[in-house]
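Quick one: structure for this chain?
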Amino acid sequence: MFDDLCSRIVLQRDINSVQIDVQLAKERADELSAEVDAALQTLDAAVDSEREAREQHRVAVRMREKFGEMMRAVQEERDFELARREESELEEAAEIRFAFDSRAAGEDSDVSGELYSVGQA
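Got it. Here's what it folds into:
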């Protein structure tokens, strides 16, 4: 465009037209520069949001892991307590059985002793 003006005799309106085209090109460059700046700000905001979201996700994952660990610990404690209670009940049942068997064995010997002594008398 400028080369064309320099190579020939030009009219004032051609010069004015070129000046307008240059001004429009500068305005468009300014608009594009403003759009680039806005895009960079949007990008920075998106990067910050992503960073915050990743941090929140990391915290949430850690909380979930901690909750899982806590639930496993509670379940292990319940299982241990249940096993301890069952073992205690089995020991108590064995003691009762032993006491019952001991009494039964003692009564049998007393009864047979009485029968034996009655039979001798």
